[in-house]
Amino acid sequence: MEAAGVKTARPAGDVEALVRLAAPDMAAVNALIGRRMQSDVPVIPALADHLIAAGGKRLRPLLTLAAARALNGGGEKAHKLAAAVEFIHTATLLHDDVVDGSEMRRSKVAAHLIWGSPSSVLVGDFLFARAFELMVETDSLRALHILARASAVISEGEVLQLTRSRDLRLDQSVYLQIVQAKTAELFAAAAESGAVAAGATDAAVEALRSYGMNLGLAFQLVDDALDYASDAETLGKNAGDDFREGKVTLPLLLAIQRTRGKEDAFWDRAVGKVEQVDGDFRRARELIVGTGALQATMDLAGDYADAAKDALSILPAGEWRAALENLADFAVSRLA
After folding, report:
1. pLDDT of residue 308
2. What are the phi and psi torsion angles at 276 (to 5°)?
3. Domain containing 170: what range?
4. In which band, very low, low, confident or very high, does the pLDDT at 207 lie, cut at 50, 70 and 90?
5. Facing residues of 109 across strands?
6. CB contact at 8 A, 193 and 81
7. Using an 8 Å Cβ cutoff, are 211 and 191 in contact?
8. Which helix (H) or strand (E) holds 105?
9. Whole-prediction pTM value?
């Protein structure tokens, strides 16, 4: 079944093959995460576990493990880097939810609504610190550089998005710059650091970085589309949250551009000023679908997924490469 207003003609893809392959490694990573988020201050493990235990597929640490295994590596170094990646991701989510005032995360009440914003921010900082401890323990300056750079880039993306919030004139290139920094950079760093842990060649390391970057872009674009074509159970947050926060994502941006001169007053009130009334989200969704903005977003996501798969051509054929290719298809087929 296809979401309203979107046509898909891609392989369905799945993540289950990768989850099964990586299960022994992920068990070790999960145990490591459990140990390293402990603290004598009770609120720290309680708050961290609230988000981490809800974890979903843990795609980013899976990428680290899969990249290492696909290049005939793995073991303790890859486990520590995978745990570090998950801590960085969780820390950014805690900070994001405070900044955005989000009410749900991974189908649970956002942590800041339970423990307060100060505790959420500080526990995020704690997780960043734990991530860097794990990186240092690998004795890999290259991996440390990759993940430290990613942490800085993610912060830059957050600030850029904040400065362009509710900007109805946001350019698509700037929007993609935000997505690349906020989301795709950690996907790229996760895969890249796994390749480094395996002792791969520079060409293979760069190929895995390219795979992760394109995969991350595809995932975020589909997430943006899902906000207008899904429900809370599927999305893990309230459908329409981006719209209600005045967040200009690609489907909305394209719809604004394609209705310029006709719907300016509506967009200015509902998005620019966030003065929304009942029915505004339904109207926005109708315009996004009707102008083809939702389809255009999904088409671009498909292009990035294809680029991700192409980047894997350097890897030897096998079950790990096939699982990574399936993951790229899964990234786009989530809207089907």
Report:
1. 98
2. -105, 150
3. 16-329
4. very high
5. 104
6. yes
7. yes
8. strand 104-105
9. 0.92
pLDDT over 90 (residue 237): no
**Tokens linked to 61:** 């640490």
The token duo for 225 is 């589309």
Residue-averaged pLDDT of the chain: 92
Residue 164: other Cβ atoms inside 10 A: 17
For residues 101 and 256, what is the distance between their CA atoms, to the nearest angstrom? Answer: 24
Q: How many domains does the chain have?
A: 1
Cβ-contact 323, 69 below 8 angstroms = no
Q: Within a domain: residue 102? A: yes
Q: What is the CATH number of the domain that holds 314?
A: 1.10.600.10
Q: Among residues 54, 322, 76, 316, which one has the least CA distance to residue 201?
A: 316
Confidence tier at 131 by pLDDT (50, 70, 90):
very high
Counting Cβ atoms within 10 Å, is residue 284 exposed (0-12), middle (13-18) or buried (19+)? Answer: buried
Reported as a single tens digit per residue, the pLDDT across 238-285 is: 678 889 988 899 999 999 999 999 999 999 999 999 999 999 999 999
Calculate Rg over the CA atoms of the chain.
20
How many Cβ atoms sit within 10 Å of the Cβ of residue 134?
Answer: 24
Quick one: DSSP state of residue 2? P
Token duo for residue 80: 């520590």
